[in-house]
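Homework help board

Subject: predicted structure for assignment chain

Our instructor gave us this sequence and asked us to write out the predicted structure in token form, then describe one feature. I got the tokens but I'm not sure how to describe them. Can anyone check?
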Amino acid sequence: MTDWVIRLIEEAGYLGVALLMFLETVFPPIPSEVIMSVAGVGAARGYMSLWGVIVSGTIGAMAGNYVWYVLARAIGIARFRPLIDRFGRWLTIDWREIERGEALFERFGAPLILFGRMLPTVRSLISIPAGLLGMKTAPFLLWSTIGTAGWTAMLAIAGYVLGKRFADIEAVLGPLSSAVIVAVLAVYVWRVLFWRPER
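My token output:
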């Protein structure tokens, strides 16, 4: 996984960082923990600047975030009602929960987006409910950019500080990403087993 990431960043520089972060956002199994820490190592070696790495990583990730948001918003939650009515059991959701989620985004949309961008796996998916539930574009972009910049900066700085020892970062954050995926799957299985629609 890391070898081709290293080669692309070394050969394409900031463009490679942006492209990889875009792909990571659209296809979450490509880990940002590796991409940004490798880019931070590149900054430590002097062939890129740390600020340039952070900015290019943020731009690439935000491009992916915006793609998901626009697609979800174009579909809209109303079109999901027949799907929810028919497959709510397996989606573990009913229309009342959708309405509560919409109210939650209206009230706490900014912190949900901000902190969601700093959680492995969740950061790539939070655009979908934001778009489906009609979160306004300006606050979505503002809080997404702040959260995404914080995440990319943290990883890039860690890679910069540790220099060639970027594997140490992956050793910590890689399992964390896996743990989040396992937790999400466990919650889904639990909900499938015990979920009941509201009367």
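Reply (TA_rk): Your tokens look well-formed. For the description, you could write something like this. The chain has one domain: 2-194. That's the kind of observation they're looking for.
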